[in-house]
User: Fold this.
Amino acid sequence: MKKTTLLFILFLGFINWSYGQCTNQDFQWPSFTVNISNAPGVQSIAIDNYADNEFSILTGIVPGETYTVTAAMYITVTESDATTVITHGANSVTFTAGTGVTSIYCFWTVNGICTGGGNTDIATNIECSTCTCTATSAPNAATTPTPINGATNIPIDSTDPTDLLITPFEWVDATSGNLADSYNLTLGITTSGADLGTITGATSGNGITYDWEYNTTYYWKVDAVNCFGTTTGTVWSFTTTSCTDSAPVAAITPTPVNGAIDVAIDTTDPTELLITPFLWADDTAGGAASSYSLSLGTTTSGNDIGTIDPVDNGDGVIYDWEYDTTYYWYIESTNCAGTSTGTVWSFTTEADPNLSVEQFNKTKFSLYPNPANDVIRIKSDAILDTVEIYNQVGQRVINLNSESIIDKSIKINNLNTGIYFMTITAGSQEQTIKFIKK
Assistant:
């Protein structure tokens, strides 16, 4: 049940260079909190962590007990605030849980300067070296599953199409014998109930995110664990509901509009050149899409640069955009019934503003504040004749003559958030200046 690695070649990554304080990772794996038993012996955190932008959350830590975390990578352990570092080091770290410390974060990197590594599965473990076992036998098996054994038409929650969800997975603890300290939930598509993967330290009542398929039978079991041993549970089954949607029709109404010119490049952060927004609409002739991918290129194929999958309608795209260049793009719309590939659209970016040296040198206009909220002011000694404001697709949204320009202040409170272009004329002088409406 390892996550799928997506192609995000249009985006840049970030590295935290603070030695040993590698706490900026933003992907939790396993995607659930791992419950650690108050018992001796090695316990698994995961069999497949990456030394790349990942962290794990562990609970069940007992103040005063001593723990060792091991993994073939660099480990940073923090308290539950994910900030206060308890210890860090390569391959193995040992610590004694302080007062009030009942959960920890483990951050995984290649080394102490927080370098991200490749997507290589690495086993991560924790061992309580001071815990003792008081149980006299392994626990009895859990009972009464939800979904009930043999259930059909189990719904798949596709609210987040990147994390399809079935919830809840529940069971009842045994009421006789020694109690379980934790449970391991395994899932499969064969009667072994384990060929897809295992959730160590699973909690009854949680849901599971996975690439669930419609009209498919899954098998699962819950193994009860205490410090004495593990009892393998009965294999249960359920069948997911069928897809009732019709396939989506290709997306329409793009922004930037097809064939648009002078599309602005936001250089506010010169290391992350931005064009925003990328918008489209669903064609209501088909079923609603549950997810989209956006492909981009400099050829009419529209995909030779790369693909963002998934992408949200209205997102911007960070890339090494070039001025005065034509780009091609298209949207793929997907739901449980299928995928439709959209028309290839195009747009051309603005000319490099730094090339208009002669025009810029003869003018004396500047804007402040920039970005602005409600009012933006023009700084100039010249008497202004006209002010025109255009949006990113070249539509004029404000047109003012000299009588309407009061104190060289322009009200922009009615504009939507985004990038705009103000063209100012004063006699023979003219200048176009980009600004951002917050």
